[in-house]
Design a protein that fits this description.
This protein has about 260 residues and is α+β, with helices and mostly antiparallel strands. It has a single domain (about 15-250), classed as Alpha-Beta Plaits (2-Layer Sandwich). It has helices at about 30-45, 85, 90-100, 100-105, 105-110, 160-175, 200-210; strands at about 15-20, 50-60, 70-80, 115, 130, 145-150, 180-185, 190-195, 215-220, 225, 245-250. The longest helix is centred in the N-terminal third of the chain and has 19 residues, at about 30-45. The protein is globular.
Length: about 260
């Protein structure tokens, strides 16, 4: 059996929803270069042993992108809802977390990341709060994932934008069908959506159609599975992020992944 073949479904809130903004002092070429040669490979090579279950990074096209829309997005799924914080006991996790300031404008990128359930009584969304729309566990490293990034249309007020997104989310929940995982986050000026299906790629694509028609779409793609061809100590130039706008990194996962306990002097 391939080391990538085993399935590890995780709960709908065991994920961190990242929206990253590049600093103004960093060119886009340097931004994507650091992501491809250091940051993205580090996530894949340092974190599975301490609980990482799936990782889907994406670059948002720069052409026509308003400054209020993130430059990069990512989903990082963990084996439990508390595993990300527990992983900080490991040196590898602290190393990885310390890289963020080298590539992101953290004043803009330090946003709520843990999704919550959508309140059935809510008529709007809380800006920058991620939501999960399907409560069941899913394995996002396998199957098909659709990722949509869009800007708020200029003619639509921010408050109406958040109301429209909430309305779409509630309608989606009534007709989710074969989509077994869904994440949504809206700022005042943008939205990001990820939809996962264990077997039917078309199901996720169809589910975004109505929403995509109401916003200014910047990215609407299926994540492309990709396995790194290197380990930590290899002579390797890095990951070419131009392979696809959104990647679903494939890696071996550990059945009992958590920081190792060692005796202390």
């Amino acid at each position: 059996m391939s080391p990538h073949a085993a399935s590890y479904p995780v709960s709908a809130n065991a994920v961190y929803v990242w929206r990253g903004f590049k600093p103004s002092t960093l060119s886009y070429a340097d931004f994507t270069g650091f992501l491809g040669t250091v940051f993205v490979p580090a996530c894949v090579l340092l974190q599975p042993a301490i609980g990482l279950r799936a990782y889907l990074p994406a670059l948002v096209p720069q052409s026509g992108k308003p400054a209020a829309v993130p430059d990069q997005t990512a989903l990082m799924f963990w084996n439990t809802a508390t595993a990300h914080d527990e992983a900080k006991a490991a040196i590898a996790e602290r190393i990885y977390l310390n890289l963020h300031g080298d590539v992101y404008d953290m004043a803009r990128s330090k946003l709520p990341e843990v999704p919550i359930a959508l309140d059935p009584a809510a008529t709007t969304l809380v800006p920058e709060q991620p939501y999960f729309l399907v409560p069941q566990p899913a394995d996002w490293m396998h199957g098909a994932t659709r990722h949509l990034v869009a800007a708020r249309p200029a003619a639509l007020a921010a408050a109406d934008f958040l109301i429209a997104a909430a309305r779409w989310a509630k309608n989606f929940q009534l007709t989710a069908g074969e989509v077994d995982g869904a994440l949504l986050c809206c700022g005042n000026d943008y939205l990001v959506v990820w939809l996962h299906s264990g077997g039917n790629a078309a199901a996720a694509q169809i589910a975004t159609t109505g929403l995509a028609a109401k916003v200014d779409v910047l990215l609407n793609v299926e994540a492309v599975p990709h396995a790194l061809q290197a380990e930590l100590w290899d002579d390797w130039p890095g990951l070419d992020l131009s392979l696809a706008p959104c990647l679903n990194l494939q890696f071996a996962r550990h059945p009992h992944a958590l920081p190792r306990k060692r005796s202390r002097p």
